[in-house]
Amino acid sequence: MSYREEKRADQAAAREADREDRRLELQTRLEAERLRAEEKRADAEARAERDRKAAEAKRRQEQTDKKQADAEKAAKKAAAAAKRAKQLRWLKANPATLFVAFVMVASIVPAVISQIGALSGASVHVAMAALLAAMLEGGAWAITFMGKQAEDAGRETRKYRIATWATACAAAAVNFWHGLEAYAAHPWVAVVLGGSSLFAIYIWDMKTHGSHGQTREQKRAAKARAKHAKARRKDHKEIATQADKLVSAMPFGAITEEQAFAAAWRIHTGAEPGLSAELYATATNAVLSLGAAFELGEHVRPELLETGLQAARLNPFAELAQMPGSQAGIGESASQEPAQKPVAGRSEEELDQMLPDALAAAAELVAEGKQISATGLAKKLQIRREDALRLRDRVIEERKLRAA
Fold first, then answer.
1. Cβ(121)–Cβ(114) under 8 Å?
2. Can you give the pTM of this predicted structure?
3. pLDDT tens for residues 323-344?
4. Separation in Å, CA 21 to CA 15, 34, 222
């Protein structure tokens, strides 16, 4: 091969190598651009995924916030409705209390104004006159509420009531004197002003004590008990005297009058209350006579007559021995609890009228996670616990009927 040929071959090889280098460089550049494009696309997809997740989280948070806001709004609405229902029930159950409060305010305010005017007219400084008037009227009401607290605690209230009326009378005297001086042409105004210090106390006393009396049925039962006690002392003087001695001999409250009378009857007669040796003898004779009559007809139905005789001999005094109170006395039967005295409260008709409100109050207790108790109903309905106890049983029975 000649020099020129070799040179051309070298030049061709160089050109081929140069083309290969440019091809490799282009391939490398294209691969790098592809990788950058892939990286950009992955970044874009990751950014889009992040944006999607952020938007989804924001949407869920907005839904949660909306649900929470709706729940709070519903809870506030339910609480407001329950409060309104409670206030409405209270107004329905206590209309007298509302009007009593109005009348008391209408009585107290004029009384205080009159006392301030009376003291100011006597050259007493206005501030001092206001304090003295507050002392008279406020003192009467302070003693009144202390008496109510003592009554609720079961303590004696006589001294509080005496102090209340004494203070109220002093305030009434001030108002009456001022009325005579300020309205000399109309003396009746002095009577009205004096009565303004007494009327509020009077109506409060009627409100707190006027509804504690016995019902007609309770009065009738008390009258029947008194008549029974009187007849017992008249018909059984010796036994009643012995019962009184037993009561005084035992520790206070150890036995009741019924238990003492039953024990005294056993001491005198040796039998259960209502029975005696004479009555036992009469009954025994009657049983023997009956047995003789059965023997005369034994040929008719001997098995029937034998059964009758055995039943008669078993306990001829079963009905008398099972009468209430016949087991009262000293010893084993003395542990029986005495009959409870009737407690004044609302009538059955009033409880029936309160049943719808009681059912609503019971639903509120259940919604609050509490049990349907007499205490809870008493607080909800603003009634005495004794009435709430009876009303609770009706509510539970009504709910069972509805559930059935």
1. no
2. 0.41
3. 444 433 334 443 444 444 444 5
4. 10, 20, 128
